[in-house]
Amino acid sequence: MTEIEQLLARVSTEARNTRPWGWPSLPAPVEPAEVTRAEAVLGFPLPALLTSLYLRIGDGGFGPEYGLLPLLDSPPSGEPAAVPQYLASRRSGRKDPDWPWPEGVLPISHWGCGMYACVDCQSPDGAVLLFDPNADHADHAWYVDAPDLATWLNAWLERTGWYEETNDGG
Length: 170
Fold this sequence. Notes:
Blueprint: H1 3-17, H2 32-42, H3 48-57, H4 82-95, E1 105-112, E2 115-120, E3 128-131, E4 142-146, H5 149-157
Antiparallel strand pairs: 1-2, 2-3, 3-4
């Protein structure tokens, strides 16, 4: 079993056993045609690991905090799905050039307060970026959260992400 297969197995187990806020159950995985449709609308391919998550685990509803966004259709919590959120962010960036949304950077998880974890679908490793619109300037709104999606998922599974609360008595 490859490292990616092992990671997918761990994500699947965690996804079946935990629910992010606003998700009453784990949605069914998407069909391959939905991935094809999403990529056609976006104009770029999704990273292989992200595609596997949607095809094999579920259409969102698992992962850190509010969970992975669904690919095309809105979740029960009312958050926009990944593809519509990307398109809306790109439109907004064209209207306000001081706050551009980078091409190929797909929101995959909402942190609240307008913050998103995003996959850079144009980077070789699919870096995961954090977008924080609460910064004073767009240049300070983007951070590298993880060098790739596998590292980001492992941080969630191992409870080592920056968003984890610690109770070390300090």
